[in-house]
Amino acid sequence: EDQVTQSPEALRLQEGESSSLNCSYTVSGLRGLFWYRQDPGKGPEFLFTLYSAGEEKEKERLKATLTKKESFLHITAPKPEDSATYLCAVQRNTGFQKLVFGTGTRLLVSP
Amino acid sequence: EAQVTQNPRYLITVTGKKLTVTCSQNMNHEYMSWYRQDPGLGLRQIYYSMNVEVTDKGDVPEGYKVSRKEKRNFPLILESPSPNQTSLYFCASSPREGLYTGELFFGEGSRLTVL
Predict the structure, then answer these.
(1) What is the pLDDT of residues A46-73, one digit of tens each?
(2) What is the C-alpha to C-alpha distance for residues A90 and A25, in angstroms, rounded to an integer?
(3) Does residue B73 sit at the A interface (CB-CB below 8 Å)?
(4) For residues A65 and A56, is the Cβ–Cβ distance under 8 A?
(5) What is the pLDDT of residues B68-87, one digit of tens each?
(6) In the Cβ-directed half-sphere of A64, how many Cα atoms lie within 13 Å?
(7) Does the bond joining B81 to the residue before it have cis omega, within 30 degrees of 0?
(8) Which residues of A fall within a CB distance of 8 Å from B104?
């Protein structure tokens, strides 16, 4: 069974304090790994897609990386507006209509 | 504005009283899906649809029905709601090619409480 585990559950940072969020996965034939951002009271918003080990994607202060067993979302010099829950999801080679999500990491960045 | 619209956003109901949560998208997307989000369990897929009149079960379909009579609409039907269906529900859509990039567009959610 496909599994996605995110850690930590919650993370509190000071503005400017860089850190990383982890997404460990077990999937039979990974097609893609996706990162989403979810603000309170809103639906998830797509951030990145990673397809193969070694791949990296960047957007502003966020950089996502992928290995064969996990993905990291690195946040460099975060700002309070980066506060949100970050979700990771995986997609199989077969049954690509289904995404399996992790439970997310709640990030709070204090000024 | 491109969007996925869900209604109602909040609903409190009682066990056994049929209800429908509507979902509409204005982006001409082929793919639509329903998820429920529960603390500690994350987002779990209920049903999905690849196109009009084509629907399939996700991971947690029990107690739910869906229909896709028009491309833009994908209602979620709870024929006889029970308290374990209390949850936050999200509708999502994507163009067919978006499935390969994982770029789903989500609605703002519908918080359902079943007493």
Answers:
(1) 999 999 999 999 999 999 999 999 999 9
(2) 8
(3) no
(4) yes
(5) 999 999 999 999 999 999 99
(6) 24
(7) no
(8) 44, 46, 99
